[in-house]
From TrEMBL:
It comes from Orlajensenia flava. This is ABC transporter ATP-binding protein. Signal peptide: none annotated. The lineage of its organism: Bacteria, Bacillati, Actinomycetota, Actinomycetes, Micrococcales. Pfam families: ABC_tran. The keyword Transport applies. GO terms for biological process: response to antibiotic.
Length: 312
C-alpha cells in the first residue's frame, strides 16, 4: 500500500476523483422518532462542511451513518466510491470524537506512537504532531494536557492514516476560546492541503469562521445548505437601529418593508427588507440620530429556520 494515496487523490484529482461523500435518501428511525429523514448529501473532495442544528436535529445520527457506525433504514452512503466500512478499513476516513480513548499516563508522543503501531503504514509521528500543532508538547503527559490539547492529540491520531476525509463530531465542546481557536487553526491549515472535513457543532461562530459550506439540520432534514454568506442571505433584510425622539411607532410599522419594531433602551430596532428607504426616511423626516444598519447574521437564520414555529 502506498503511504498517501487518499490525500493525493483528493488534492490533485478533484474533478475526476469520486465524491468524498454521496449520501442518497438516508433515513434512520429509533422507535417512533425519525432521527434522519431522507437526507441527500453530496460533498466534494476538499470541502470543509459544518453541520449545524439544535439538539436532536439528527447531526450525530447522520455522522454515524457516514462512518458506518450505524446502517440507514433506507437510502445509501458512499465514501470515495466505497461503503463507509470499506472506506474506513482502507484508511480513507478518520474521526475525531469528543471523548474517550486516551491514556493519562502516556506522553503525547507515546500515545501517537502506540496508535501508529496498530497500523501497517502511517505518516511519521513527528509530522502528525506538527500538523496538529502539538510537536512542542510531545513529552507532556496526556493527563496534564488541557482539553484543547487533548483534542489536538486526537486530531494527530486521526491524521496517521492520512485520510482523505476527516469527520469531527462536536470536537470543541467545553473548550475555552483560545483552545477552540488553536484547534481550528490546526484543522484549517491541514485542510488547506486538500483534505475533506465534516464537522458537527453547536457553535455558530465556528461554522461561520471555519467552514466553506454550512448544512443546517432540523428534525432530521436539511433546511439550508450553502456557503455562510448564502445561508445568511436566507434571513433577508437588515436591522436599522436608531435613537428616534418621539418616534411614531405606528407610522414606522406601516412603512414599506418593515416587519418588526422593538424598543431597546433609548433606541428603536426596526427589521426591514428596505433599509435604504427607511434610513432616508429617518434622516429626512424625523430627528433620528445614531443610526446603524446591520445585516442579519447566521444566528437569525438559525433561529428562523430551526425554531418550532418555522416550516419543516
Ligand atoms: N440510540 C438512540 N436511541 C433512541 N433515540 C435516539 C438514539 N440516537 C438518537 N436518537 C434520537 O434521534 C434524534 C436525533 O438525535 P441526534 O443525536 O442525531 O441529534 P443531534 O443533532 O446530534 O443532537 P445534539 O446536538 O444534541 O448532539 C433525537 O430525537 C434523539 O433523541
Amino acid at each position: 500500500m502506498e503511504t498517501t494515496p487518499q490525500l493525493a487523490t483528493a488534492a490533485t484529482d478533484a474533478p475526476a476523483s469520486p465524491l468524498a461523500i454521496a449520501a442518497s435518501g438516508i433515513t434512520k428511525s429509533f422507535g417512533d422518532v425519525r432521527a434522519v429523514d431522507a437526507v441527500d448529501l453530496t460533498v466534494h473532495a476538499g470541502e470543509i462542511v459544518a453541520f449545524l442544528g439544535p439538539n436532536g436535529a439528527g447531526k450525530t445520527t447522520t455522522i454515524d451513518m457516514l462512518l458506518g457506525l450505524s446502517k440507514p433504514d433506507s437510502g445509501s452512503v458512499s465514501i470515495f466510491g466505497r461503503s463507509p466500512r470499506a472506506a474506513i478499513a482502507e484508511g480513507f476516513v478518520s474521526a475525531v470524537l469528543q471523548t474517550g480513548g486516551l491514556l493519562k499516563d502516556l506522553t503525547v508522543r507515546e500515545t501517537v506512537q502506540l496508535t501508529a503501531s496498530l497500523f501497517t503504514q502511517t505518516r511519521p509521528v513527528d509530522e502528525v504532531l506538527e500538523r496538529a500543532g502539538i510537536l512542542d508538547i510531545g513529552s507532556r503527559m496526556v493527563g496534564k494536557c488541557s482539553g484543547g490539547q487533548q483534542q489536538r492529540l486526537r486530531f494527530a491520531m486521526a491524521l496517521l492514516s492520512d485520510p482523505g476525509l476527516l469527520i469531527l463530531d462536536e470536537p470543541t465542546t467545553g473548550m475555552d476560546v483560545t483552545g477552540r481557536r488553536d484547534f481550528w487553526n490546526a484543522i484549517r491549515e491541514d485542510a488547506a492541503r486538500g483534505r475533506t472535513v465534516i464537522f458537527a457543532t453547536h457553535y455558530l461562530d465556528e461554522a461561520d469562521a471555519y467552514a466553506d459550506r454550512i448544512v443546517l439540520m432540523r428534525h432530521g432534514r436539511i433546511v439550508a445548505d450553502g456557503s455562510a454568506t448564502e445561508v445568511k442571505n436566507l434571513a433577508s433584510g437588515r436591522t436599522v437601529r436608531a435613537v428616534i425622539p418621539e418616534a411614531d411607532v405606528a407610522a414606522l410599522a406601516a412603512f414599506p418593508g418593515v416587519s418588526s419594531i422593538e424598543s431597546r433602551g433609548s433606541a428603536t430596532l426596526i427589521s426591514t427588507s428596505d433599509s435604504d428607504a427607511l434610513a432616508r426616511h429617518l434622516f429626512t423626516r424625523t430627528d433620528a440620530h445614531d443610526v446603524e444598519i446591520t445585516a442579519h447574521g447566521l444566528e437569525d437564520v438559525f433561529i428562523s429556520l430551526t425554531s418550532e414555529g418555522s416550516a419543516s
